[in-house]
Specification:
two-stranded antiparallel sheet; 41% helix; mainly alpha; single chain
Length: 176
């Protein structure tokens, strides 16, 4: 059984799935959501030999690891300086696009004072890098209170302006 340790979880699940299809009278509720150790125990308990089944091989082309890899994969190139300026000029001159980097109206802060929301320099840098990279996704991680939510909103705004038929997914940790 120890020689099965080299199998990936998806490979073990594939063998179990094929075994279940051959042995339809056997029920294994919840087996798809168990750990690798429990999957190995299922193999041992039912004497399932993964080598007797068509096991999918590992992906020879793993998902992209760098921005350069992503650009190559999706056939994207970064905007040059003139293209960046042209993009911003067109965005700012088009009445359909309001500039989300500037507040349109005041809000009341925690102290009860009215103020405009303004992005911090690190947020502006991140948003420009996202827009100018010509990619369709990003991951941001900053410290507590550094404006990740505002970054997500502004990046989503630009992204949906560039790709109006796409969707935005924001993943955040739960609050403690």
């Amino acid at each position: 059984m120890s020689n099965y340790q080299s199998f990936k979880v998806y490979q073990i699940k594939s063998a179990i799935q094929q075994w279940i299809e051959k042995n339809q009278n056997v029920k294994l509720p919840g087996w798809k959501s168990v750990s690798k150790d429990k999957l190995l125990k299922i193999l041992k308990q039912f004497k399932i030999n993964p080598f007797h089944f068509d096991i999918p091989q590992a992906n020879p082309n793993p998902s992209v690891k760098t921005i350069t890899d992503a650009r190559k994969k999706y056939n994207k190139k970064p905007y040059s300086e003139p293209e960046q300026e042209s993009f911003l000029l067109n965005l700012n001159n088009n009445p359909r696009y309001q500039n989300p980097l500037q507040s349109l109206e005041q809000y009341v802060n925690k102290e009860g004072k009215k103020e405009y929301v303004s992005l911090q320099p690190h947020q502006i840098k991140f948003i420009k890098q996202f827009v100018f990279s010509n990619l369709r996704g990003t991951i941001a991680f900053h410290g507590v209170g550094s404006g990740k939510t505002l970054n997500a909103v502004v990046c989503s705004y630009y992204y949906l302006k560039m790709y109006p038929n796409n969707k935005v997914i924001v993943i955040v940790s739960n609050s403690k």
